[in-house]
Amino acid sequence: MSELPETMKILEAGGAALWQAPLDLGRQQTGRLEKLLSKEEIARARRFLSEAHRRRFIAAHGILRQILSGLTGICPNHLVFENQGRGKPTLKNDLPFDFFCFNLSHSCEMMLLGVCLKGPVGVDVESITPRADIFGLADRFFFPGEVRAIRSLSPEPAKMLFYRYWTLKEAYLKATGEGIARLGDIEIRHQAGGGYGIIDRGCCMDEKWRIMPIDIRSGYTGAFAVAARSAGFDMTRITAVCYHP
Questions:
Q1: Which pTM was predicted?
Q2: What is the mean pLDDT of residues 195-208?
């Protein structure tokens, strides 16, 4: 990972890092990644009935181990994961950092990974489904202003805005560790200077959050959310890396 030294500089300076990687790998690459997984992860992979789902799980979790190994200096096979409340994973190993947060999302043939050393981070990637009932889903889960914004557009831009709102909301909820059960509490606002802001109607937001869309390859959309729990967090230092195993 030739980009690792520069990425570590950004993380240690108080920034955040994002990796996106394809999961449509060949049999040999997938086999090499499977050797990095724990017995529990291999058992989970084998429970998938679909070969495609099994292959994607192996690829995503193998790549996760490769990247986290490069950041922590721990052998990929020796990384130990445990779940926090609501199933959000964390590393159980002794780490050379005071704080280390990561979050993984994968959809169809793409994965997205976010890492931060200063505050909680969440990511979401979604495959854009051509026949998704975006208006029905928006009416059910989104706030009236969001629904109006989507319905004011022609079909293709409306679909893209729907997925943008959805991924921004889910990235935030993954960062908080709550998951999509509270999707209906989260409102996305367009900011005057560009970009997006977030309002959580379900709780008091005592942290400063940054949410932003992530450019993914055609047919996908992604988002990133990070909170500043430390005065050392620098919201202007965010780097994105395309990773190829």
A1: 0.92
A2: 79
